[in-house]
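Re: that chain you flagged

S.,

Sorry for the slow reply, it's been a week of failed gels. I finally had a moment to sit down with the sequence you sent. For the record, here it is as I used it:
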Amino acid sequence: MASKAANEGGIVETIKTVVYALLIAGVFRTLFFQPFWIPSGSMKDTLLIGDFLFVNKMAYGYSRYSCPFGFCPISGRLLFSDPERGDVVVFRHPVNGADFIKRLIGMPGDTVQMKNGVLFLNGEEVKQTPDGDFEEVYDQQGPMGNLPRCENGPIGQGDICKKSRARETLPGGRQHDILNIDTNGFGDNTDVFTVPEGHYFFMGDNRDNSQDSRYGQAVGGVGFVPAENLIGRADRIMFSSAGRSMLYFWTWRSDRFFKAVE
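Prediction finished late last night. Pasting the structure tokens below so you have them in one place:
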């Protein structure tokens, strides 16, 4: 009898340990980090379809979308530190509520404009330095089976898809890659945008394949994003898979494991 009771007690303790571990993991996720799987190619080549990362929810403080258990002690956003130009940020779309990931380009009060595919901030041209081509196989990517867009298209399945790459240097010196697909595409020439106070202007690094702040919310773009919609900053890729499922180990991109996000 004693042995049976001891066994039952051991099972109960094991169950309690598992429950406590899950609760701690849930609290940790809710308070500090949120997993995010890259579903589209709008941030190539910084982020590829199938990259898996954790979003640092405490990078900027609490908002109604990142506060613990959905409860915030105050309305709006409590900033611990201001977002910085060049950060790669996950935010909630102001209209449809979907989670987006883009690069922060325009700060409150900035003017932003694209001219012939070149970014201008506050009237000053942002330097671009040509950096060869970004190449990938023209094939279905990720769980949704998306085909990449190519500067050298149309091409056949299995061919090499190319996009011109440049190194962009933002004011303050932060650098990142940008890609080009179209010449004088729809987003390559825009009006001057003036970012309102309390809002931010985001763009994808794959400039011709990104529905970002250059596009109005009425046509599926994100427009200006309120500060309270920011969820957190993407700092590091933890895992990456080029296949339709993360279980397809032969499609894992081992060179992207634990890769810092520029």
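What I noticed first: The chain has one helix and 17 strands.

Talk soon,
D.
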